[in-house]
Amino acid sequence: MGSKGSKTKATAADRRAKIEELRRAEKARERRYRIITIASCTVIVAGLAVGGYFLVDSGDKKEEKKAKVTSSVVKTGEFKGMRTWQNLGRTHVEGTVDYAMSPPVGGNHNQVWQNCNGDVYTKPLTKENAVHSLEHGAVWVTYTDKASKEDIATLKARVEKTPYSMMSPYQDQDAPIVLNAWGNQLDIQEASDPRVADFFKKFVQGKQTPEPGAYCTNGKSS
């Protein structure tokens, strides 16, 4: 009886020992698993962060490359000497914009357009509003104090009878008269230049217009 009891106790002790050993082994496995999991997650997160950086950085560079304004000069044809620009921004922004040309013929601009339904202004316009009008397909005639009164009167008469056009003084330009459309600009010395009529015909609501048919009324009037 005593021997049998001793064997039973020994068996129970062995079983407890084995159970305890299994528990220790299981805990050890759990610790290893947690360490591996944490390490893996760290590597993945780091990889995502680095990858994300490169993706964002690459995207920014692509956007910057896309947004880079390029220009050229027309060398032949009826508008020889006309300057053209591509990749012009079209985002609505607040405040002033540093344009790539003067007068500006495209780029980010104010959300309110300048009225351009044959409107003639005697004071300089806010550039950011005028650019929005060009986006709608308007031709903007600008002139300096070097333009003659006769030329100003001739251009005024043309603008007043032409929807999607406007006119205003602008001193910071190279020629006495400049014709402006979205992405296109032509210097003119005299209003009698036949290219004036050709410019209006080609660019008033022309193919260059980013938003054809958009309003030239109900905008800014001064």
Describe it for me?
The protein has helices at residues 2-67, 127-135, 149-160, 195-203; strands spanning 70-73, 83-86, 117-120, 139-143, 165-169, 177-181, 184-188. By secondary structure, it is α/β, with parallel strands linked by helices. A seven-stranded mixed sheet has the order 1-2-7-6-4-5-3. The longest helix is centred in the N-terminal third of the chain and has 66 residues, at 2-67. 26% of the residues are buried. Residues 41-66 have low confidence and may be disordered. Keywords: Membrane, Transmembrane, Transmembrane helix. InterPro entries: DUF3105.
Number of domains: 2
Low-confidence stretches: 41-66
Alpha-carbon Rg, integer: 37 Å
CATH class annotation of the largest domain: Alpha Beta
Tell me about the largest β-sheet: 7 strands, mixed
